[in-house]
Amino acid sequence: MRDYNFFEVFESKKGVKLNPRSPFFIAAVIIAVCVVLSLGLVVRNWILTKNIDSATEELAKTKTSQEYILANELQNSMDAMTEYEKSADTTLEKFTSADIIGSQLMTDIFKGLPSNAVVIFFNLEGLDLKMTCDVPNRETAAELLLGLKQTELMQTVKLDTIETKQDNTGLVVRVYGVLKAGEAE
Question: Membrane-spanning residues where (predicted)?
């Protein structure tokens, strides 16, 4: 094994001689490369940090502006409406495909109702129809009964009861009817 004298460079009087094969030279080159790479990474990290800080400041200014707040509220409303529309479409598809009562039959029955009548209860067993509606006055109750008779789906329609609501804001009407044979199928 060869004995290396690391101080040989300093002992010679003829100047510095570098031996590229010496372990000292190789170690110095490796250390110099590591230092240069480390400095490059530190500078790159510093530049990226400055860019991130400036972008964060701009984002904070943007988020506090009225236009951004209004646009964000609008976007949230649009997202909620889109989600509602998807849910409504899914429900409609399930309802139509199941055809529990017959969506066309229900549409035809509800066409005969006045616009200010609210259906609270609806039951159709065989040909027997039971319906409870909330109406504002007796005239609307009469229109409800007449409208159901005019749909030509009903064999008979009877107004069972008319009760005044507890808060005196309208009436609760119970209607019983019998569909014509074959209409519920």
Answer: 24-43
CA atoms in the 13 A half-sphere facing the CB of 151: 26
Domain that holds residue 106: 100-179
The pLDDT-based confidence of 134 (bands split at 50, 70, 90) is very high
117/144 Cα distance (integer angstroms): 8
Question: How much is the pLDDT for 98?
Answer: 65
Backbone angles phi, psi at 124, to 5 degrees: -130, 110
Q: How many domains does the chain have?
A: 1
pTM higher than the cut 0.85: no
Span 118-122, average pLDDT: 89
Alpha helices in 65-178 (DSSP H): 66-98, 103-111, 138-150
| 72 inside domain | no
